[in-house]
Amino acid sequence: MTRVQAVLTRSDKGLIGVAALLIAVAALTRYVDINSVLAFVVAGMAIALLATLVGRSVDQLGDRLGAGATGVLQSALGNLPELFVCIFALRAGLIEVVQAAVIGSILGNILLVLGLAFLVGGLRHGTQQFNSERAHTINAMMLLAVAAMLIPSLTHTLHTPAAAHEHALSDVAAVVLLIVFVCSVPASVRRSSEELDAGREASNEGRWPVALALAMLAITGVLAAFVSDWFVHALQPAIHTLHISETFAGLVIVAIAGNAVENVVGIQLAARNQADYALSVILNSPLQIALVLAPALVLLSYVVGGAAFTLVFPPALVAVVVASVIAVTFVIADGKSFWLEGAALLGLYVVIATSFWWG
Question: What's the whole-model pTM score?
Fold first, then answer.
């Protein structure tokens, strides 16, 4: 314990203290009859503070694990709150919220977070360059994964013979996507020669031990899962109080809160001119949404109770996610980012979010 305290800076200790306080308040609002909107806001703030701690841990791991491995690890832990939010929402019968949250998580990362990262990084450092080969690989995988994830929606919309078997088709697609994810991990975590050289040259002064950084990631991930439960508990009353649609709540509010980790980490890394790490973290998250989270929800919905979940999404959600993934493919193709590209991605996100305000 003494060694850990010696490694942590005053700001680290302060951040941990504030996060612990917010988690305690969030727990109080969950189990005491308090205004649902207040409980909703406090739980969201607690998740954001946990996200900041994850960002600190990722920063400590970056030059030792490499951009690919860091992005995969951080995205896996960062998507835990999203997974638990969706599970609890399914148990509550909020199928529209879950459908919108899955699509909203993809849109939130590739438009909102990537846009903010390009904007902040561009304004602070000018044009930023990143490993275009890795970015292209991740984005190509995401395009293919989203296409496979949306095949059941296409068969349903076009009234093909497979439309009558949407549950079976969704099960098959879910298993295939999970297998593809397992196959993609070795290539995702491989380090380039430049990253290996940077890792050897990096100073250990002021750095956390790897075990401490990994433990912090694990602890914050577990705590975020508990806070997600409290968040969902206050969600439905807050929706009715604030007079917003379930689709908008899932697409924007739940997606942003559930992906608070990537929201904070990706922007922090871009602001520090660590474009490769920022892009890996930001793009690995929606890739894992399509390859892991959505398929996992299909299979878990059989055992968690509540509403059954399939990969059949409303046509409007299908259209906006396909258009957004294609747009991002063109934006990152040159291996460079400029602040104006970030502003354009943010503009597209605002227009899409507004279009679902009414449901």
Answer: 0.81
